[in-house]
Give the backbone structure.
Amino acid sequence: MRASPSQARLLIGLSLRALGGGCILTVPVLVYLLHQPPHAATAGSLPIVGITAAAGMTAHQRAGRVRLGSGIVFGVLGVAGAYAGTRSSGIRPGPPGAGRIIHW
């Protein structure tokens, strides 16, 4: 089954709104319904989820339910941790096949 981009947008939007999901919901829709390669779907889901999250955050910020300082600290530490984890993953080799990227 091949969905139209409009149908996929609607499905992604409804699922993100209803379930509060993120890339875990967006990537399968892009891969299985729009037949995008997994790497392209992963990269493409980042702006989709980011824009959706920013829109939701804006509404909550107007209502006074967002601690922007804490969010910035959390984001900076998350980026630093992801970078450190990525860099350290190549330092010590694991068992055969561990840590290899699966190409579809």
